[in-house]
Amino acid sequence: MTSVAEVLSQLRFYVHCGAYSEVTNYVDELPPAVKQAPLVALDLSRAFLRQGRPIDAEAVLTSANSAAATPGEQLILALKKASLSIYRQMAIQAALQAAQTAFSAAETQSIDPADRAEADRVHTRILLSAATYFEISKEQGHLAGDWLPAIASVLTDRSVGCPLHNLLPRYRVHNGIRILP
């Protein structure tokens, strides 16, 4: 049986080399249970998006075994699906609502700071897309962009020992959208 760690290592190697056809061939040989592991599904979706294959990325995320996911992985999966709905159907308002629902569901969960930063990164992408198409205010878009340096500092330092909420500014909800004060 192939371990998830081995699969992730091989996928990341192929993606790093830009060997996307090898990614596809490798994935075709994997057992379904391994492909459905949350971390594998997230990496596969990134690889498919880099190939310009959003339908495949969405299928991989949809088939991910969310029951096996940590609360942070569940949040990231939900946000990635919401983000893909913007690219696939221009469903910006639906993506904003899905993001809000995902954060509400995760509110009481203990989430790893790195997972939270990844979730915030994807959420920021949703907000910036919404700002680009005037679905949220220009100010909300700027505030979302201002969030990126704090998110990047957490994502580049996986040894963060303190909760992410100490690093990121507090947010509030306005018209169903998380924004910074």
Structure, described:
By secondary structure, the chain is mainly α. Helix content is 67%, strand content 3%. It has helices at residues 4-17, 20-28, 32-35, 38-50, 54-63, 71-89, 92-106, 113-132, 138-146, 148-156, and strands spanning 172-174, 177-179. It has a two-stranded antiparallel sheet with strand order 1-2. The longest helix is centred in the C-terminal third of the chain and has 20 residues, at 113-132. Residues 159-171 have low confidence and may be disordered.
Largest sheet: 2 strands, antiparallel
Task: Please count the helical segments.
Answer: 10
Compute the gyration radius: what is it? 17 Å
User: Strands of the largest sheet, in order across it?
Assistant: 1-2
Distance between the termini: 49 Å
Mean pLDDT across every amino acid position: 86
In short:
With 181 residues, the chain is mostly helical. It contains 10 helices and 2 strands; from the N terminus they run ααααααααααββ. Strands 1-2 form a two-stranded antiparallel ribbon.
Keyphrases for this structure?
two-stranded antiparallel ribbon, 2 strands, 10 helices, mainly alpha, 181 residues, single chain
List the SSEs and their pairings:
Elements (H helix, E strand, L loop, with lengths): L3 H14 L2 H9 L3 H4 L2 H13 L3 H10 L7 H19 L2 H15 L6 H20 L5 H9 L1 H9 L15 E3 L2 E3 L2
Antiparallel strand pairs: 1-2
